[in-house]
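Quick log. Single chain, no ligands specified.
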Amino acid sequence: MAFDSFLSGKNLTGNIPSEITSLPGLFEIWLDVNLLTGPIPDFSGSTDLKIIHLENNRLTGELPSSLTNLPNLKELYLQNNMLSGKVPSSLVNRIRVLNYSGNINLRQGGRSRNNTAIIIGSSVGGVVLLITIIACCLFINSGKKRRSDEDEFPRILPAQKLVSSLKHDTASETAHSFAFSEIEDATRKFEKKIGSGGFGVVYYGKLKDGKEIAVKVLTNNSFQGKREFSNEVTLLSRIHHRNLVQFLGYCHEEQRSIEARSILVYEFMHNGTLKEHLYGPLIRGGGSIGWVKRLEIAEDAAKGIEYLHTGCIPTIIHRDLKSSNILLDKHMRAKVSDFGLSKIEVDGVNHVSSVVRGTVGYLDPEYYISQQLTEKSDVYSFGVILLELISGKEAISNESFGINCRNIVQWAKTHIQSGDIQGIIDPLLGNDYNIQSMWKIAEKAMMCVQSHGSMRPSISEVLKEIQDALLIEKEADAAREGNFDDLSRSSLHSSTNMGMGSMDLGATESNVLFDDSLSQPSAR
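-> predicted structure:
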């Protein structure tokens, strides 16, 4: 049986238990960003291991010789511990990625040299010894500086060192490194601003080959340093899905006349954000999207979030899911954006941050108690988006929800509990919807925004409900067109046979190019 151990950032203490090293079929170990101490155990019994993450702990001692004997080991991360001794040359030469920076007393070993007897005259011995001591001090200080510089910009950049950590996939990923001059040319020196947010400003650009791009220039406080930016590029480079905005590359150059630029380059999404199509400037000219298209957008977005939750190792929590982070391409297909930025901003290198990358109205109410964001936090945010799709209203408003109510969740819950779904349906939809599909989505949205995460469905369950609602609409269309056979009637009947009061809403309300049509991620 094959399995992996993913315990990153769990505040684990003590020594690494020796039992973990004897587990058969273990492919990956992720014990990074904890408080583990003691030596690295003997991994000689873990012959299937491909990836070992032990960085950012307090491990001590020398590297066990068993590491050099693991036949399948491809990646070893040891940085920022208190390890000592020598890294065997055989290990350096054999595995693809080895990072041991930040261990002051750990160095790469070399070939042994024959001792040479040197006789120094007593008259000059004291002088030579003094010079040697001074030279050693200068060398050590220089070495520390070099190691500090390496820590600031880790070995995983440039792009050729980017590595995938998707399930059992150890193939190298690549991300294009753009020169700053290329970015300036593509954007005509940042002429056209198309968006902005907490992470920076987004500009429109076009490359020399005609490809349109969105250039996100990150604000100075988006990352704590080059390491975080490097980690972000690594994360984005290994995550690809048809319902996630495609990451194309990065730029990080220090210019004489400007501050260091940290830039991320994405595909350009021609039809803007979902927010703009629901209650933004795009609807003023009669451009409101119909109910079926809204369901299709919800389906696309749910697929993107499902991939982050179930198709990536470790699981990626979006943390700032909202209608302005759902973008629409030229065919009006939806893709989720900013999924990597939120994770890095919250977790950083040390998994400690006082910053929450969330938005009022979408933020999981449990966060205010637990200070933690989980997959169910994303589900809460997605439930708010479903309510926006139904109503065409903003998540938070001083005017839309009546006296003493600013929150779409509270407003919608009052109507749905009383059976008045018509009171929350967007008037711009007219009568172009099936009431059964509308009820199905409204009820599922209410389940998503339950106060307690344990009461919320998974994003996969939400996706299934959206697809059922789409089936209801399509079969209803077929019936109106006279193409509705007995089988379709039976299917429609089973899909819509539900009671309006079947859901407990609660009494109170007080976070590679893989194409899912070609390669679905395997279950964890």
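The chain has 13 helices and 18 strands.
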